[in-house]
Amino acid sequence: MDTKEKSDVFQKRIDNGEKIEPKDWMPERYRKQLIRMMSQHAHSEIVGMLPEGNWITRAPSLKRKMVLLAKVQDEAGHGLYLYSATETLGVKRKDLVEDYLYGKAKYSSIFNYPTLTYADICVIGWLVDGAAIVNQTMLAKSSYGPYARANLRICKEESFHKKQGYEMLAKMAGGTPEQQKMAQDAVNRWWWPTLMMFGPPDEESPNSAELITWAVKTKTNDELRQSFVDRTVMEARKIGVTLPDPDLKYNEETGHWEYGEIPWDEFWRVIKGDGPMNRERLKARRKAYEEGAWVREAAMEYARKKKYREGKAS
Ligand code: FAQ
Predict the structure, then answer these.
(1) Are 162 and 126 in contact (CB under 8 A)?
(2) CB of 216 within 8 A of CB of 34?
(3) Distance of alpha carbon 280 from alpha carbon 223, whole angstroms
(4) Which of 96, 205, 216, 226 to mutate to test the pocket of ligand 1 (most atoms within 8 A of CB)?
(5) Is 277 helix (H, G, I), strand (E, B) or coil?
(6) Cα(263)–Cα(183) distance, rounded to whole angstroms?
(7) Ligand 1 geometric centre to CA of 110 (Å)
(8) Could you give the CA distance from residue 218 to residue 6 in angstroms, rounded to a whole number?
(9) What are phi and psi of 56, to 5 degrees?
């Protein structure tokens, strides 16, 4: 078959809802798009450990510390599943990691904001993990098998993350006036950046159409954002926090909550490297990578010697 015929068969498989597996034929552009998106997702999980890691030593109780430690460790695990899934596309993890550490690849905008109080940890669990679940539940149905399966597992863990964040925030929002103020302040600071996590508006999203044709994404950025807003308004009301959007109103006809103008200038600035914490985040990750070089070298040497002893290599 020539490339055109192979592409037609490939598209038919996608349209029939079949999963594409690593050894199957795929258009080069599909492979490239997956590498871009999956590696960006992996980097986000790893960088995403930093804002919350910042509060592990200052968690308000042993129970909260154990939960936070487990959550941050889960995020590392998500990064590792996603790097492994990306490697099935014929790329090396080392190259992917160096692409973001030295400035060529993106990671999620949301992790370029600071965590100023413990209430930020509650709100990250509720809003950021909540948004990630909406996005990743869709990606768990993605056409690429290894990515879909990684997201399925990630979503199960993210559900626990969201619940612990919501439970903590509910406690804080029902606490002393000072705690209530902290909770509301954190909601005010994280609300708009969370809406930006879903990516630019559909008309400014160059990748969406292609990704949807290939069922890598099955919903657009705006569809997912709307679904997140709809479920979050009710959750906010239940625990007595206010979403900082005076234009938020329910539309009886569409059955959706309409929201105000997202500050897109800020989004574009952050993804171009000029957010409040971009420089610190990359500096911290580069330091960890460079200081961990001896561990990687020792592990590689151990593997090489083990193979040699077993007579599999010279
Ligand atoms: N941040 O054409 P589109 C988590 C870029 S994991 C930075 O719409 P696409 C877990 C985009 O890459 C969170 N860049 O792109 C956790 C593209 O630039 P490029 C991460 C963004 O791919 C919780 C350009 O803008 N999740 O939270 C962002 O169709 C708590 C044009 O955009 C994923 O990565 C952004 N927010 O849609 C961890 C999920 N949005 O690459 C710790 C997988 C857009 O052409 C604590 N990814 N850009 O140079 C996706 O679902 C999609 O890739 C989108 C973007 C929705 C992020």
Answers:
(1) yes
(2) yes
(3) 32
(4) 205
(5) coil
(6) 22
(7) 10
(8) 22
(9) -60, -45
Query: How many angstroms separate the alpha carbon of residue 138 from the centre of ligand 1?
Result: 14
Residue with the smallest CA separation from ligand 1 atom 50 is: 37
| Token pair for 167 | 């439970």
State if residue 106 touches ligand 1 by the CB under 6 angstroms criterion. Answer: yes
Q: Are 40 and 105 in contact (CB under 8 A)?
A: yes
CA atoms within 13 A on the CB side of 5: 2
Using an 8 Å Cβ cutoff, are 250 and 184 in contact?
Answer: no
Residues of the chain with pLDDT under 50: none
Decide: 200 in ligand 1 pocket, CB within 6 A.
yes
Q: Which residues contact 285 (CB under 8 A, 6 or more apart)?
A: 46, 47, 50, 100, 101
What is the per-residue pLDDT for 103? 73
| Sole residue written with tokens 């809406």 | 195
The rounded distance, in Å, linking the Cα atoms of 197 and 135 is 9
Token pair for 20: 């594409």
Whole-number Å distance between alpha carbons of 17 and 243? 38
pLDDT of 104 reads: 85
Q: Tell me the two tokens of residue 296.
A: 């990687």
Position 314 scores a pLDDT of 54
pLDDT for 19-57, tens place per residue? 999 999 999 999 999 999 999 999 999 999 999 999 999
Q: Which helix (H) or strand (E) holds 145?
A: helix 145-173
3-state secondary structure of 258: strand
Task: Return the H-helix or E-strand segment holding 257.
Answer: strand 256-258
The three-state secondary structure class of 201 is coil
**CB of 269 closer than 6 angstroms to any ligand 1 atom:** no
* Cα–Cα distance for residue pair 145/139, rounded to 1 Å: 10
Report the pLDDT value the prediction gives residue 21, as an integer from 0 to 100: 98
Q: Give this prediction's pTM.
A: 0.96
